[in-house]
Amino acid sequence: MKSLLFLVLISVCWAEPHPDNSSLEHERIIHIQAENGPRLLVVAEQAKIFSHRGGNVTLPCKFYHEHTSTAGSGTHKIRVKWTKLTSDYLKEVDVFVAMGHHRKSYGNYHGRVFLRESSENDASLIITNIILEDYGRYKCEVIEGLEDDTAVVALNLEGVVFPYSPRLGRYNLNFHEAQRACLDQDSVIASFDQLYDAWRSGLDWCNAGWLSDGSVQYPITKPREPCGGKNTVPGVRNYGFWDKDKSRYDVFCFTSNFNGRFYYLIHPTKLTYDEAVQACLRDGAQIAKVGQIFAAWKLLGYDRCDAGWLADGSVRYPISRPRKRCSPNEAAVRFVGFPDKKHKLYGVYCFRAYN
C-alpha cells in the first residue's frame, strides 16, 4: 500500500527547472496537483494596466477552482503573494504577501499596497501614490495547500522618454552613472518597451543610450548616413549588452507627470546660473529639472520660446507649437547647451511642488 501511495505522488508532481539551476536553485518552482478535487486557476482580467505617477491603480487577479464556482476548498488557508519581475525575468522583487489575517509589504511598497478583496476570490492588488519605479510586470501567485497558480499583469505609466547626456558631453556615462543622472533629473532610466513606444510616437535620436536592462540602443525614424545608413529601415537600433562599469554611452530617461507647477520665471533681467537658482528660491520654488521640462512639454503642452537655465546647468526651452524663430519644423524641447554658469545670462525655469 505504501509503495502504491508513493507511485501516485510521483505521478502528480513535477518540477520546472530554472535555466540556471546551479545559481538559482532556491528559486525553483515546484507544482503539485492533486488527482482528486478541482484544480486551482489564477486569472487576470486585464493583462495591461495604465496609470501615472502619483495615481492609484488596481492590478486585477482572481482565483477559482476548475469545475466549481467556489473560491476555495475551505480546508487550507489561502496564501496570496505579489512580486515584481525584473528586466531579465530571472529574479523577482517581493511586493506583498497575505495569508489569513497576516499582511506584509516590502521595500518601496511598504504602506502603499493592499489587497482589494471585493469578494472571497479577489486577490487584486491596489497600489497607491504610484512612483516611477513602479512601472513593470507583476506576478500574482495564489497557493492553497498543494495547489498553486500564477498570473502576470503589466503596469504601464503615461509619460515621456528623453535622451540625456551630461555637461561632459556625448558618451560619458557608465550604466550606474546613467541611472543616477536620470534620478537627478526627476526621472528613471527607461525600459526597452518605453523607448520602443517613444520611437513609435516619433522619437528620433542618433546617439546610443543605456536602457534599464543594461542594453544600449537608439531610435531612428529617419534613416541617414550617420545613423545606420540611409538605406536601412527605421527602428530601434540595438548595440547589445555592454560592461556596466567600463562602457560609456548616453542614457534614455523616462518621466511622468508631477505634483507641482512648472513655469518660466518673469524677471526684470537675465541671470547667471547662481542668480537663477536664487531667483527660484525667492519665488518659493526650485530651479526646474530636465525631466520636469520634458513632462510639462509632452504631457501638459507647455510652450515657451524663452531659453532658460535648468538644474543641471543646461539651457533649454519647450516648443509645443512650432513657429518661425521657435523651432519652426517640429515640436520639441530645444537644447541650447551648457553655457558658462558664471558669465552667460538667460532666463530660468522653476518648479514649485504642491503640498
TrEMBL record:
GO biological process, one term: glial cell differentiation
Disulfide bonds: C206-C227, C305-C326
Record keywords, A-Z: Disulfide bond, Extracellular matrix, Glycoprotein, Hyaluronic acid, Immunoglobulin domain, Repeat, Secreted, Signal
Taxonomy, superkingdom: Eukaryota
A GO CC annotation given for this chain: synapse
The Link domain, residue ranges: 160-255, 260-352
One MF annotation (Gene Ontology) recorded for this entry: hyaluronic acid binding
Subcellular location: Secreted, Extracellular space, Extracellular matrix
InterPro entries, per the entry: C-type_lectin-like/link_sf, CTDL_fold, Hyaluronan_bind_Proteoglycan, Ig-like_dom, Ig-like_dom_sf, Ig-like_fold, Ig_sub, Ig_V-set
Signal peptide region: 1-15
Residues of the Ig-like domain: 38-156
Task performed by this protein: Stabilizes the aggregates of proteoglycan monomers with hyaluronic acid in the extracellular cartilage matrix.
Similarity-based family: Belongs to the HAPLN family.
PANTHER family reported for this sequence: AGGRECAN/VERSICAN PROTEOGLYCAN, HYALURONAN AND PROTEOGLYCAN LINK PROTEIN 1
Protein name (database record): Hyaluronan and proteoglycan link protein 1
Species whose genome carries this gene: Buteo japonicus
